[in-house]
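User: My collaborator and I are trying to settle a disagreement about how two of our proteins should look. Neither of us wants to argue from intuition anymore, so we agreed to look at predicted structures for both before our next call. Could you fold the first one, then the second, and keep them clearly separated?

Assistant: That sounds like a sensible way to settle it. I'll keep them separate. The first protein:
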Amino acid sequence: MNRRTMLAAMGAGALYALPALPALADGGRTIATDGFTFVVPAGWREAKAGRGANSVTHIGLWVQGSYADQAFIALDEDLDPGSTLAAFALVTENDMRSRLSKVFVDARDKLQMPNGMPGLRMKVEYLVGDSDTLYQQYVWLIYDGQIGISLAVGGRVGRLDLDEATKIASSLTVVWRGDGPPPPP
């Protein structure tokens, strides 16, 4: 039974842990702050990110592939995400709906990061600009007790699947900075 079949058997919204995958540090670049680290895989080039809105700071944007078939990784930090992971998810979804066309949130799955931190993964599909080009992204949201970390991996529909996106996201490590132990997922 592979991971996809296991997740389907557990049902939507099931609790699961990101698998322990091999490190992506083979020539990759490590992004580190006092609260989290992320390894950008080799072969991804940095792109200029726009300014964050409100309390959001863009940590980085990386792309791979040609313009017509580009995949992206976006890492953001929200200094005012609300007081819980659920509040952070609501703020993030509302922000996406205000910036993108015809947003459809296909799935919301609770998860547990390798270090025990609770998180949430959303699968989001949307149209870009005036075209009928459908994009999808997988968004990992982690709330560390003070700030929210958002990692989005995506591209045109079919460019990256869940397994590829999960492998990229598996290098994200967030340190709990809240009072007491982290809440359960």
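The second protein, kept apart from the first:
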Amino acid sequence: MKKIFLILLLFLSINFANGDVPSLTGYYYQFHLYYNNGVLVNDRDFKYSYDVIPGLYIQSGVQTAYPYVIEIISISGVKLTEVEFDPGVQLTGKTVGKLTVTAPYFANAKDVNIYDSQNKILISIPVSETSFCNDDKICDSDVGENYNNCPNDCTSSSLLAVTPSPSATAVPETDKTSSLLSAILYILGGLAIAGGYFGWRWYQKRNFNNT
């Protein structure tokens, strides 16, 4: 009985969790790389060369006058930003080893290029599969475009025509009440099913003992 009740609670918690839509602000890229005597490649120990991580991006410290540079290019070919990093901070004097570098996330990014201290490109990583802004001058709210994350597509004049994202839409009190009632009904229904099941087992066992 306890197991069934816990399963019901887990089911309800998953349903309520699915109602929360996270904001797309406050994300950053995390790249998994391997450095070998000036050559930079994807780390084979990872299935994907990068992840998009929720959280505040904090630039790592640079302790050299000749840092490496991460350059982020948009779908339309515009440089969105560049970030300096120092591979020596992680390698600590070694010429071979794993590197984990980060950069701010952009919803319209296409490629991330990494250059060495001599401005020579070492690796280019495509990131368009995690981007949803296509810079087509059309504000497509269905895929999450809005003025904050896609200013090229969603101008201030188009705000009135854009449907607010789920995260910015207030939940009416009636919806909250309905969700609570649904949760209660789920629990009661689950308890009724569990009670019927154990009652049937008891009835079967009693008949077996009588025979």
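Some points you might bring to the call about the second protein. Residues 12 and 183 are 7 Å apart (CA to CA). Strands lie at 27-36, 39-42, 50-54, 68-74, 79-85, 96-104, 109-115, 121-126.
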